[in-house]
Every structure is written in structure tokens, then in C-alpha cells.
Amino acid sequence: MHHTVVERELELGLVLSPGRSIPVPARLVYRSEDPYAVHVTFHVGTDHPVSWTFARELLVEGVFRPSGHGDVRVWPTRTEGRGVVMMALSSPDGDALLEAPSTQVSAWLERTLRAVPPGAEPRRLGLDEGLAELLAPADELWLCDPWPSDESQDGE
Q: How does pLDDT run across 15-74, given as a tens digit for each residue?
């Protein structure tokens, strides 16, 4: 099974206050071998980029309606007459509110959904093959008793 990577570079806005944000370069990454997750890496001007991983389904739903709770929340809105997807991220290190252009996020998500359609994720993980291997009949070696019998065969 071949693996597909769907990437997109885009500029997000880090919201500092109502009406004020600063640009943050980001990369969206989806890997078919990790079919339930999306990865977002923010380049925030430090030595190490900040990466977040969360459910693809959460982002897909968040393009249309408020989605998520806790550490990751996503919802659609309009800013300055254009559609944006808001992402509220919380961690022990701090909170961030980011806005992403809806059209770019939606186009990228559409590519991920073509790579691995909803419902096809378990096949990409190979769960069925792994379970089949675990539940397969034991071969002859496993049927042999590896421990000597407690019952003596020499007439003791």
C-alpha cells in the first residue's frame, strides 16, 4: 500500500486582539498512514516550530460549524468580508487564536478526503490484517507443549 502526503503552506493570522493579528507561516500536513490526524506546524520565529496534531474530522466539521472542545476548537466565521476558519488552541504553555483562509483550508481538506475517504481510515491502518494475523490458527509449533508433563512416563 503506497502512502500519500498532502501538504499546504499558508499564512495564518495570530489574533492578538479584536481587529489586530500578525501573520504566521504555517504548514498543513496529512499522511495517509496516519489517516485520522492532521498536523499543523507554525513557524513563529523561534528555533523550533510549534506543531499540533488533532483529528481531521474536527477540522472538516469546523469548516462548517463550531467543533471540538478543550485543547482544540475550530469554527467558521467572517472577517473583513472573507470566510475564515478560527482555531483556538490551548496548552500548558499558553493559548493561541488563529485564523486561516476558509478557501485554502477547504481545498486542502478536499485533497485529504480524496486521498483517504471518510470511512476508509481503518483499511489504511491495516487493523484488519493485524487482527487476522493475531486470530489466525496456530501452527504446529504452537500446538506442542513446551513444558514437560507432570505425569511421569517411566512408571514412577
A: 999 889 999 999 999 999 999 999 999 987 778 888 999 999 999 999 999 999 889 999
For residue 22, the cross-strand partners are 14
Taking the C-alpha atoms of residue 80 and residue 84, their distance in angstroms, rounded to an integer, is: 10
Q: Is 91 helix (H, G, I), strand (E, B) or coil?
A: strand
List Cβ<8 Å contacts ≥24 apart for 90-97.
96/14, 97/14, 97/15
Cell 481510515 belongs to which residue? 121
The DSSP annotation for 11-30 comes to: EEEEEEETTEEEEEEEEEEE
Those residues whose C-beta lies under 8 Å from the C-beta of residue 11, and which sit 6 or more positions away, are: 23, 24, 25, 26
Q: How does DSSP classify residue 138?
A: P
Report d(CA 70, CA 120) in Å as an integer: 27
Question: Nearest to residue 94, comparing CAs of 30, 29, 25, 46?
Answer: 46
> Whole-angstrom Cα distance, residue 63 to residue 16?
22
What does DSSP assign to residue 33?
A: T
Tell me the pairing of strands 72-79 and 67-69: antiparallel
